[in-house]
Write a structure and sequence with these properties.
Elements: H1 3-25, H2 27-30, E1 34-37, E2 61-65, H3 67-84, E3 88-89, E4 92-93, E5 104-108, H4 109-114, H5 126-130, H6 134-141, E6 144-148, H7 152-161, H8 166-193, H9 197-218, H10 229-234, H11 239-249, H12 257-277, H13 297-308, H14 311-314, H15 323-334, H16 338-344
Parallel strand pairs: 2-5
Antiparallel strand pairs: 1-2, 1-6, 3-4
Amino acid sequence: MTQRSIIDESHAFWDEVVHPFLASRFPVETAQMAAGVFGYGSEVLGLDDEYSTDHHYGLRVNVLLPERVMAARGALIEDALAEGLPHAWRGRELREGYTRTKGVALGSLEHHLRSTIGLDAPPNSHSQWLAIPEEDVMHIVAGEVWHDASGRFSAVREALNGYYPEEVRLRRLAHWCRYFSGMGVYALKRALLRDNELYANTTFARSLRWGVQMAFLLDRTYYPYDKWLTVMFHRLRRMGARLAAIVEEAPRLSTPWERKLELLHQMSDILDQAMVEDGLIAPHPRYKVSATSGYRLLESAYAELIRKCPAEIRGIVPQWAQVHWEGFHSEFVAGVGLEDWRRMLLLEVYE
């Protein structure tokens, strides 16, 4: 089953089965719903492969209700769906997700927003934009929405699809310049000088990720969850092609450490040149690589970028870890029986 067929068939399942069922039994609540395929899962981005089918795979319809409606009527609606929906449709398994109703994941709009972007409405300040984990934006804007009479969920999607305000983009770009250079290239050089392979491995991998995150920012494209990174990086309209050879060679186990460091130096130059082209930093002469500290070029860019940021956000560190989702996930796992959880993890006991 292809990703497109999953979304198309899920849409047909909504149109032919779920929507008529809900509209006939819960017309007031259905008028307040947002429904489609969105949120978590590689199929939302069209990135399923042969390994995706071993968990949470199949037809799905995501349904969001206002929090007060979910609190008052959600359990009743779930009971009706559990009793009234088929176990399979057109020969397709109905996906089992984070709710007890196969095929339909019913939840609160506000909860879905808070557990992803940490807000229950579109961001309305630079500080709110900076508090949203970049990886989680995809869980709002990706996929499709087929039904949203109130327009509340669609308004959040539209706001995020407009991408960062320029001041926020500069602050995020400055952040990764600092990390890539000061905690990446510099740290890797010191680790190699001290024969510290554990630190070299950890800081190299982080450096490569930080450089790629800058590429996404320079192309005004949201950085995705890491496991979807490779394919989406190569789709970048400008920086994907410029950095492709580096991103392919650098992580190979056969690439020696000194070559890995040199590739990060090359990445520094390419990212720096793109920022000059875009007028984000001033043109400058070439600089030498330090024998003890590596090539801290992008910390020079960091100093220029941070001066362009409004004073009220200079000291705000952009959020990039999925902290809101992890908070929800912890509560979810705490409420699931251990046997059910192990089954979801595909842990089977040896006979």
